Amino acid sequence: MRKQVELHKSRFLTELVEFLSIPSISSLSEHKPDVQRGAKWLADSLELAGMENVEIIKTEGHPIVYGDWLHADDKPTVLIYGHYDVQPADPLELWETPPFEPTIKDDKIYARGATDDKGQLFIHVKAMQLLMEEHGKLPVNVKFCIEGEEEVASPNLAPFIKENQEKLSADAVLISDTSFIEKGQPAICTSLRGALALELNVETANTDLHSGSYGGGVPNSIHTLVELLGSFHNNQGQVSVEGFYEGVPEPTEQLRNEVAEIPFDEESTKKQLGLDVLYGENGFTFQERVGIRPTLEINGVGGGFQGEGLKTIVPSQAQAKISCRLVGDQDPSEVFKRIEQHIQKQKPVGSKVTLNQLIQAKPVSLDSTNEMIQKAASSFEKVYGVRPLFPKEGGSIPIVEVFSRVLDAPVVLMGFGLPSENLHAPNEHLHIENFTKGIETVCDYLLDL
Amino acid sequence: MRKQVELHKSRFLTELVEFLSIPSISSLSEHKPDVQRGAKWLADSLELAGMENVEIIKTEGHPIVYGDWLHADDKPTVLIYGHYDVQPADPLELWETPPFEPTIKDDKIYARGATDDKGQLFIHVKAMQLLMEEHGKLPVNVKFCIEGEEEVASPNLAPFIKENQEKLSADAVLISDTSFIEKGQPAICTSLRGALALELNVETANTDLHSGSYGGGVPNSIHTLVELLGSFHNNQGQVSVEGFYEGVPEPTEQLRNEVAEIPFDEESTKKQLGLDVLYGENGFTFQERVGIRPTLEINGVGGGFQGEGLKTIVPSQAQAKISCRLVGDQDPSEVFKRIEQHIQKQKPVGSKVTLNQLIQAKPVSLDSTNEMIQKAASSFEKVYGVRPLFPKEGGSIPIVEVFSRVLDAPVVLMGFGLPSENLHAPNEHLHIENFTKGIETVCDYLLDL
């Protein structure tokens, strides 16, 4: 299909630019209309690709976009999942080109959502269109189920899947929302960490107070916050919340070997990130720390005066965002309880502390020997000339565990991103080569099934 | 003078409203034109009050406003100091009326700067005007030296004083920028804490990273920040920076008794602030903690994602604002060095940490038996019917130490604020009763000298 892809490449890119310029940020309520616009744009695009029964399905949050083509008789059915929502774009000042004015530069397309996940999702839409144009039909039955809430942990998709098992039933779930190991080395991820995201709020007095008149004599919300946040780790890089590691499997020799097989260049990683050292839990390698070990990271913190210059106050309010990555049999609800208990135990006097859960997702493990996954590996090999590796991914795609369990189907994580593509960060981008080769790979895979 | 004050009260208040509506925030560069407008307004007001040689003196920062009336021959000379700049107004959402739309309610005037220090400064301007209108002259020689940088620690006034010793020479320096003990109980403050304000910046990677792909494997700027900030205090409420307490005098029995004499109602303070407990350095009372003990307070903290919802990043940048109050012979430069050493010692691997000094001021102590201070006490007593107390103030007016040392004159801290007037906080206000009685008190004092 390489020729056909090349023929239509510039048209496809023009369409992708249009898709990427919609700021469909699911976590910010002021962008709700943009998320809706994103759903509408995607639905139109599915119809253009020849999908039938295209629906924009309302939920309590952002809509799900569905479409199918079911005329391949006894051929297998593939359910394609992806998400059209994106992360917030701040800090805006660090973007070299505006996040929602997609810019093509050095064979990459720069925009929020370029790799996570609009660009990768669009690979499938365009693959269907090419197959239809080429053969007048698809080689397998296809269902698209695309959500607009992945970046807020899919609160409405899980119930939707449970209520629509028949409608969504499939022989494989195909998802492109993960990364290569590095440029030229494809990967099919076979393990995803679970997640638990929290918001911690501290309140002391009912107003900010003058640090001259009250400083030293009243509780300070930021002192409480940093004391609590500082208590989450010990100096071995371990999480010091009692019970946090319950359910975390002791890594077997085999697992450690598998992880070690994934190529990783510490020096070039440090150089790329501008770091003198990498840092994490004692006794584990970088790949283990980010792949098979659980973590607790503070994602944001704020309180008191943050402007230019100074304001000598005792701040009355402070807050932090925290997220955990979970593995093995760690249960997000249980981890939440443990953190709550930890805070109650550590909490200094004079502060009101509240902990809210923002999202949770269970860890998931997939069987790399499954036929559906092995065939995907073959298609990768055909297009890229290199057989994919099967890494343990550090990130979380909460819905993978639900698809796998509720639909009882193998999930094929056929990612076309690169780890260097700044997902969730300023200057997110997608290599156009992987966009076009991605379309080839998907076409080959479906033709092969 | 009560009658004359009452006669002109409404005109004076209209003028004060005009003065308070100028957002002369010295710490925010976008308000530079407003600060200049404030200086011009004040200069016009001094001329209206009959002052001569009125000048707006340029500095490297915001201008100093000078004016004098020197025709009282061999009578003493009083230098009046105040500041026309104000604190930032945020958090704006907590103001019940807009900070720069002064509002009169329940005999109070609400606005940023109402009590700190425009309202108190304006007492002197209007006192001069009344004395001039009444007697055609002033009973003493008067010099006004008003700055626009008090809230950023007077970086240009100190050199100005040193270069203009002759021009500013006086028998007393009169300042209204402090508070009563409580409504009806005036106070002449005889001790001010010094100050040291700092900005702490932490940087790790050159960009925010995805907490799924990198979480647990790279340094997190907020982890470093909270570890450092959390290390500044021990669980006794003491500052744990080595050498911090050098130069802090062991409080004598007499000093502790003096401090204990200042009325203080713990229960009503807690109730007013919405606090279950007060908190501070072990072994000291609330009044000691905020009056004669040094402190280190975190005034603000920020880093990573602070918006609505979540963003699962490993943040690469985080910062904090810190300020110390100093007493006795503590030297701000020495304390800065100690904090720097502490940070170098505590700093975790993989972080670039920088510490910048924003302001510094030495502590100051005044002799309450001085005649100029005792006469001020008598004027307070005449107008309010209560003799003032002589408390140790927890705040810092950095320039007091400079006036006292360079001009070798007693400084009279004749404050008309109330501790409940929310200075540096939302809903700052001034009791109009203290504005009018303040004018009376100042007139009486000058007539008495």
Automatic annotation (TrEMBL), chains A, B:
Keyword annotations of the record: Dipeptidase, Hydrolase, Metal-binding, Protease
Molecular function GO labels: dipeptidase activity
EC assignment: 3.4.13.-
InterPro entries, per the entry: Cyt/Met_Dipeptidase, Peptidase_M20, Peptidase_M20_dimer
SUPFAM superfamilies, A to Z: Zn-dependent exopeptidases
Enzyme class, broadest EC rank: hydrolase
Peptidase M20 dimerisation domain location: 193-348
Domain of life: Bacteria
Matches recorded under PANTHER family: BETA-ALA-HIS DIPEPTIDASE (PTHR43270), SUCCINYL-DIAMINOPIMELATE DESUCCINYLASE (PTHR43270:SF12)
NCBIfam families, A to Z: PRK07907.1 (NF005914), PRK08201.1 (NF006053), PRK09104.1 (NF006579)
Protein name, as recorded: Dipeptidase
